[in-house]
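Much of our argument rests on the idea that a fold can be written as discrete symbols. Part of our work consisted of pairing the sequence of a single chain with a tokenised description of its backbone. We regard such an encoding as a compact summary of how the chain folds. The amino acid sequence and the backbone structure tokens for this protein are reproduced below.
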Amino acid sequence: MRYSLLRWRGLVVVLLIVLLAACGSGDKSGRKDPHGDIQLVGLTRVSDEAWDETAVRKVLHLFAYGSFASDRQIAAWADMPPERAIVEIIHVGPRNAKLSPPDNTAAFGPDGTLRGLSEYWSSPRSPLPEGRRTAYDSDAWRAPGRVWTLAATMPGLNPVRQKIGLWETNYHMAVNQGVGVGNAQIIRYYDQIMNDLAAARPYHEVIAGAAASAAVTRQYGHHNNRFRSGVFSGNEDFAREYHQLFFGILGQDDRDQDYHELVSIKNTARALTGMSYDPDDNSRLHYGSEEHYLSDLEILNTQITGGNAREKLFNLAAVAIDHPHSQENLPLMIVRTLADDNLQADSAKARALQDYWASINPKDLVTFLRGYAISEEFHSPERVKYYTSIDRNLIIANRLTLSSEERLLNFYNANIHSMEGADPFLPKHDVFGGQTGEEASTSGDVFRNAYNVSTEGSWRFERVHLVEDEEIVFTKDWRPVLPRGANGYRVEEVAEWLWQRFIADGHKHFGPLERVHVYALLARGEDPTQAWSLDPEEVISPADLAPGGRHELLFHDLSNGYLFQGTTPEVGNRNIGRAIAFIISTPYMFAQEGR
């Protein structure tokens, strides 16, 4: 009995119908977290009973690509009041020692920004193999995405920072390397946004700072906007998207549509005049008053002042963040893209999120996400988030990784998402964002690649040694982190541990058919029909494995076997890899349910 491509596709259809650590749990200085207290106005706090290890793991999967937190740390968070635990989990400084314990600080150097990591990993001091260093130089082809991916999968660095950073720069305020935005512009853009968020700068200022960047100006081309002799010349592209994409002000009400298009957007375009920069991608923008519309401009029924484009962008942002359309739409835009594909605009859940967002003043994205992550609205069975290819593959990569040495040696290639048409800083829909989770979950090409990686490409998970020049330079050993009983590593316990590590559903979907496959792969390294010497075409049903079923005793024997007994460590670790390859090929690796 093998899970064929068609069978698993059918199951998919069924299922899917900053500072450094000072700003988080890794802070040893005693400095206060800069973000506001969590006051769940509108939202309902998750109960202490529901805030268990599975709830914590769901937060980690969604906001930290699974993270590198130990089982002990996850249990500790589950035992804390959720409002205390979430402050330790969600912050966006470069490091978070509890979420991502460093085993070797030399793996990433002293500066956790993309720029600092690029400089360190491409330098003579780099711990990377010499032949790979130049690929991380900021001038190298697609370097921003390569640096970001290694940062998101490196123990010791903060994966929450990278998750939120990718959302901000590839979805919410997307820029695209493919249309000419330069490497250095992208890296500066990313670091600026994340440093501002880590410092708890008011969210409208974070947005305005992003809008005033060289990356956004290059993306939309409004650096050529000019006001000469009383005549405006230029484009209105960013003037429109600053309202719609950055703040959620769509201007679609019938009574407001003409005003929005003919007054707010046209005057925003006039505000975006007088900018220039040198052709060098590394140069910063110059905000001049010459050829800038100096007078006040009426935008969103407010007079916007400012002596140059930057000043007007910041002054407009302070108005836009409080606009009724932004208050209504922006919190839903945030939650839909990051956490809930089922969120409906007219639902009670949406109204609760809007009330919570309205209560946060000044607006702070980190505070908003912390509160949402400990709410019943997040931990609800109605919530479903389909993983993008980047989400899914980075969760797999981080849950596979036990040390920074593995990442430096590229023992597991974390860039498999590129094979599925998803690349950081090359958003599929340009300014409208990257591949969505729904697109990934319904794509035959994506599913086929994921299936092939787990079958024909299962060597990625099975291999135990990395050999160079006929010498073993690295050995993978799962034993230090596996659950161990008095008699050793029992198959059932290891199987449940692996399922929870990768799927994080509290074993909700770890049914008898999934179990028999994982048990057989752990105990024998084979499909159950092979392990039991059955006809390979025989179909095994849950009833066959239930008490009184024809394979009950065989099933029981598998579950009570022990790994690493009577075999070499290589065989035990290989079998774990085979079990992982099976687990991540199931439909449950493509989405997350709230509970």
Notes: The radius of gyration is 26 Å.
